TrEMBL record:
Its main location: membrane. This is G-protein coupled receptors family 1 profile domain-containing protein. It is a multi-pass membrane protein. One of its GO terms (biological process) is neuropeptide signaling pathway. Keywords: Cell membrane, G-protein coupled receptor, Membrane, Receptor, Transducer, Transmembrane, Transmembrane helix. Pfam families: 7tm_1. Residues 1-181 form the G-protein coupled receptors family 1 profile domain. It comes from Adineta steineri. The chain crosses the membrane at residues 34-56, 68-91, 125-149, 155-180. It is found in: Cell membrane. One of its GO terms (cellular component) is plasma membrane.
Length: 197
């Protein structure tokens, strides 16, 4: 259940990033009530998705193939797709924002030509989202693919340990990225830590 919660924490963080960027004018999204709703939603999704594993747990059998596939889908595939959709919404919003700014700054003749090319900011955002998506998928996929394959074959414990370390480093990179790229959160922590009265 822990890995499901971790994946859905990343999903929830990406959803909150969409809300803070796309719906930045909504004051409700900055309240404690909204934060509580997000936390409850994340834990509820994680608990609901682990119910089949708990209900159909046959202790006399070893690791079952369906469980490995199910875990791979709920920990890797579903969160990856949700994060990908959230990132696409952010990119679409940033791209339309860039186009609005360019339209107001440039003449109508140059506008059609400028819209065809990605701005440096949009390109940086797109690269960043692709890299973070790849870090998440490449970091977590091997351990769950191993769980599926290990039903038929056995592997060295060193390889398993390397897969676990890779998944933990992937999580660390994604979580660090969420904090580093969240300017409001960094400003909040700076004010709380350095400006205590």
């Amino acid at each position: 259940m822990l890995e499901v919660q971790l994946s859905f924490t990343i999903v929830e963080a990406s959803f909150n990033r969409v809300c803070s960027i796309v719906y930045h004018t909504k004051p409700f999204l900055r309240t404690k009530k909204w934060a509580t709703i997000c936390i409850v939603r994340q834990w509820s999704n994680g608990i609901i998705l682990t119910i089949p594993i708990i209900l159909f747990n046959e202790s006399n059998c070893g690791e079952q193939l369906w469980k490995g596939i199910y875990k791979f889908v709920i920990v890797i595939i579903i969160p990856s797709m949700i994060c990908l959709m959230n990132n696409m919404m952010i990119f679409k919003y940033a791209r339309s924002s860039t186009n609005r700014i360019q339209t107001s700054l440039e003449g109508a003749k140059n506008n059609a030509h400028q819209r065809q090319h990605l701005s440096r900011r949009d390109l940086h955002l797109l690269r960043h989202m692709i890299v973070m998506f790849c870090i998440f998928v490449a970091g977590w996929s091997p351990i769950y693919l191993y769980a599926i394959i290990a039903v038929q074959f056995s592997f060295s414990s060193i390889i398993v340990s390397m897969f676990i370390i890779l998944s933990e480093l992937s999580s660390l990179a994604v979580i660090s990225n969420l904090f580093l790229y969240n300017h409001e959160l960094r400003r909040y922590y700076r004010e709380k830590i350095f400006h205590r009265h």
